[in-house]
UniProtKB/TrEMBL annotation:
Positions with biased composition (Low complexity): 480-491, 512-524, 539-558
Keyword terms: GTPase activation
An example molecular function term from Gene Ontology annotations: small GTPase binding
Compositionally biased tracts (Polar residues): 29-38
Residue intervals of the Rab-GAP TBC domain: 102-290
Lineage: Eukaryota, Metazoa, Chordata, Craniata, Vertebrata
One GO cellular component term noted in the UniProt record for this chain: plasma membrane
InterPro entries assigned: Rab-GAP-TBC_dom, Rab-GAP_TBC_sf, Rab_GAP_TBC_domain
Region feature (Disordered): 1-38, 387-558
Gene3D superfamilies for this protein: putative rabgap domain of human tbc1 domain family member 14 like domains (1.10.8.270), Ypt/Rab-GAP domain of gyp1p, domain 1 (1.10.10.750), Ypt/Rab-GAP domain of gyp1p, domain 3 (1.10.472.80)
One Pfam entry name: RabGAP-TBC
Biased composition (Pro residues): 438-479, 492-508
Keyword Mitochondrion: no
UniProt protein name: TBC1 domain family member 10A
Length: 558
C-alpha cells in the first residue's frame, strides 16, 4: 500500500535517482552511430555545437547581440577577470548585472570557473585531478558511467561519436569525482552538469567546476536517498503559494508531489529542459547568485503553465497536469521572456533559507532525523569567495601556492617600538626662549623736543621749502652702531655732567599712539619746556646726520 505524506502519495526515491532511465534510454537511441553517421557530413552544427539545430527552439530563442556591443562586453569582462577579487569585493552588483545581461560566449567558460570558485579550488589542489585520473576507480561506478556517456547530448559535436574526445573527457571527470567523493559516488544527474561544463572548458577545470556545484551550490542533491532534493521540492511548493496561488491550489487539489516534476529541473539545472540559449543565460545567473535562480526558473515555468484558469480547463487530473508540465509552451522558455520573468520573481536567498529551516523542522517531525547532512548551501559567487578568499597569486596564469608563515613575536614588538620611536621623533619639543639684549637702550636723560616726531600734517610742505644745508657747514660726525644718536649732547649745548654725579632727569610724559598730538605737545612744553630755538649750524648738522642713517635706523631712532 502506498504511503501518503502531506496529503500526497509518497514517491519511491530509488527510481527517481535513475532519472527515468527508460526515458533516457529512448532518447539515447537518437544518438546511435547508425543514425548519426547518416547525416553528420550533410548537416552543419549551429552556433552552440548542435548538429542540424537538434536543440529545439535554440535558433528562435537566441537573441543576436550586435558585434560592437559584444566586443565592448568582452573588453569589460576581460578587465573584470584580470582584477577578479577586487570586483567581487567592491563592485559585486556590477558583476551581477553583467551576468544578467549574458556572459560573452568567448569568455563564458573562464567566467563560470571564476564565479563558481573552481579557479581557486584548482590552485589549492595542484595535481589532484591528475592523481585521481591515474587511479583505476571503483568498478561498480565505472560500469554505470560508461552506460551514460552516449546519453548526454548525443547531437552535440563533442559527444556525437562513441569513444570521441568529448566522451573520454566526460568519463575522466565523472570517474575522478567518484574517487574524490567516495561517500556520494555517482549520480546520473551529474553527467549533464559535467557535459555542459566540458562544452566550455578543459577536463580539469570542468572537474573542479563540478565539485563546486555539488558542494557549494547544490549540496546533498546527488547523495544517496536524495533527501536534499526532496526538501527543495517542498520549498518550491511553499514558495509557489506566494508567486502563483492558482497553480498552487491546482497541484494541491490533485495531490501532485513536487518530486514528480522538479527533480530533473533542479538536479540537471534545467540543462535538459530549456532551449540552449536559455540554458546558458540561466547558468550565467545561477553561478553568480546561487540556487535562488533555480527556484525562480521553476516558479516561472509553473506559473506560465498552470497560472491561469484557461490553461487548467484541460487539466482534470494528475496525468493531464504531468503531460502539460513535460511539454511546456516554447514561448515560456524563450530567452528574453524567461530572463525578464526570472528577474521579476520576488524570491530572495533569505526566503529560501527561511523556508528551508521550516521544512527541516517538518521533516524531523514526520520522518525523523536526516540520514545525510550536507554542508551549508552557499548562495552565489560572493559568498563562496568570502568563505575561501582568493590570493592574487591564485588568479595569475601560472599561480603558485603561497604558505603564510606567521612572523615571530620579536619582529612584531620591534615594529611597535619603531613606530613609537618615529612618533616620538615626530613630536616637536618646545624650545627655550632666549633673552636677547636690546641694542638700543632707552634714553637716560630727558628727550629733546626736536627728537619727538612731529604731528602728522595733512598737507606736508613741498621739498623746495626745506633747502639743503650749505656745503660750508661742518660734516656730520661718524656714528658707531648700535645707538649712534643716543650719545649726542642735549640741544641745550651744555656739556654732559660727570658720570659720578648724574643729574636727576625731570619727569616727562610718555607718548602713546592713541593720544592726540596736540595735547602731548602742550604737556611736554609745560613739564620740560626745553629751548626750541637752536643755532643754525647745530640744526643743519643734526639734519645731515639723520639723512646719513638708513631708513630702518631712522625708524628705530624715531
Amino acid at each position: 500500500m502506498a504511503k501518503t505524506e502531506n496529503g500526497r502519495p509518497s514517491v519511491d526515491m530509488g527510481s527517481i535517482r535513475t532519472l527515468n532511465s527508460s526515458h533516457m534510454e529512448d532518447e539515447s537511441s537518437l544518438g546511435s552511430d547508425s543514425e548519426i553517421n547518416g547525416f553528420t557530413s550533410e548537416r552543419q552544427a549551429d552556433r552552440y555545437g548542435f548538429i542540424g539545430g537538434a536543440q529545439q527552439y535554440s535558433e528562435e530563442s537566441a537573441q543576436d547581440v550586435p558585434p560592437e556591443v559584444l566586443r565592448q562586453r568582452e573588453v569589460k569582462w576581460l578587465d573584470m577577470l584580470s582584477h577578479w577579487d577586487k570586483w567581487m569585493i567592491k563592485r559585486f552588483n556590477k558583476v551581477r548585472l553583467r551576468c544578467q545581461k549574458g556572459i560573452p560566449p568567448a569568455l563564458r567558460g573562464r567566467a563560470w570557473l571564476y564565479l563558481s570558485g573552481g579557479k581557486v579550488k584548482r590552485e589549492q589542489n595542484q595535481g589532484k585531478f591528475q592523481e585521481l585520473d591515474s587511479q583505476p576507480g571503483d568498478p561498480k561506478w565505472l560500469d554505470v558511467i560508461e552506460k551514460d556517456l552516449h546519453r548526454q547530448f548525443p547531437f552535440h559535436e563533442m559527444f556525437v561519436s562513441r569513444g570521441g574526445h568529448g566522451q573520454q573527457d566526460l568519463f575522466r571527470v565523472l570517474k575522478a569525482y567518484t574517487l574524490y567523493k567516495p561517500d556520494e559516488g555517482y549520480c546520473q544527474a551529474q553527467a549533464p552538469i559535467a557535459a555542459v561544463l566540458l562544452m566550455h572548458m578543459p577536463a580539469e577545470d570542468a572537474f573542479w567546476g563540478l565539485v563546486q556545484i555539488c558542494e557549494k551550490y547544490l549540496p546533498g542533491y546527488y547523495s544517496p536517498g536524495l533527501e536534499a532534493i526532496q526538501l527543495d521540492g517542498e520549498i518550491l511548493f511553499a514558495l509557489l503559494r506566494r508567486v502563483s496561488p492558482v497553480a498552487f491550489r491546482h497541484l494541491e487539489k490533485h495531490k501532485i508531489d513536487p518530486i514528480l516534476y522538479m527533480t530533473e529541473w533542479f538536479m540537471c539545472a534545467f540543462s535538459r529542459t530549456l532551449p540552449w540559449a536559455s540554458v546558458l543565460r540561466v547558468w550565467d545567473m545561477f553561478l553568480c547568485d546561487g540556487v535562488k535562480i533555480i527556484f525562480r526558473v521553476g516558479l516561472v515555468l509553473l506559473k506560465c503553465t498552470l497560472g491561469t484558469r484557461e490553461k487548467l480547463k484541460n487539466c482534470q487530473g494528475l496525468y493531464e497536469t504531468m503531460e502539460l508540465l513535460r511539454a511546456i509552451d516554447p514561448r515560456c522558455m524563450q530567452e528574453g521572456f524567461l530572463v525578464r520573468e526570472i528577474l521579476e520573481v520576488p524570491v530572495t536567498a533569505r526566503d529560501v533559507d527561511k523556508e528551508h529551516h521550516t521544512q527541516i523542522k517538518r521533516w524531523k517531525k514526520n520522518r525523523g532525523e536526516l540520514n545525510f547532512k550536507p554542508a551549508p548551501r552557499m548562495h552565489g559567487a560572493r559568498i563562496i569567495m568570502q568563505a575561501e578568499p582568493p590570493r592574487r597569486q591564485d588568479l595569475q596564469q601560472n599561480p603558485t601556492i603561497v604558505l603564510e608563515v606567521p612572523e615571530p613575536p620579536q619582529k612584531l614588538n620591534k615594529g611597535k617600538e619603531e613606530r613609537k620611536s618615529k612618533k616620538k621623533r615626530s613630536i616637536k619639543k618646545p624650545t627655550a626662549i632666549e633673552e636677547i639684549p636690546n641694542p638700543y637702550p632707552l634714553l637716560t636723560g630727558p628727550p629733546p623736543q626736536s627728537l619727538n616726531p612731529p604731528p602728522p600734517s595733512l598737507n606736508p610742505p613741498p621739498p623746495s621749502l626745506n633747502p639743503p644745508p650749505p656745503s660750508s657747514a661742518t660734516p656730520p660726525p661718524s656714528f658707531d652702531l648700535p645707538s649712534p644718536f643716543l650719545d649726542l649732547p642735549s640741544p641745550s649745548l651744555a656739556p654732559p655732567p660727570p658720570p659720578s654725579d648724574p643729574p636727576s632727569p625731570p619727569p616727562y610724559a610718555t607718548v602713546t599712539p592713541e593720544t592726540s598730538p596736540e595735547t602731548e605737545t602742550n604737556s611736554n612744553h609745560q613739564q620740560s619746556a626745553p629751548p626750541t630755538d637752536l643755532p643754525a649750524a647745530k640744526e643743519s648738522a643734526l639734519q645731515q646726520s639723520t639723512q646719513s642713517l638708513s631708513s630702518s635706523e631712522q625708524d628705530t631712532y624715531l
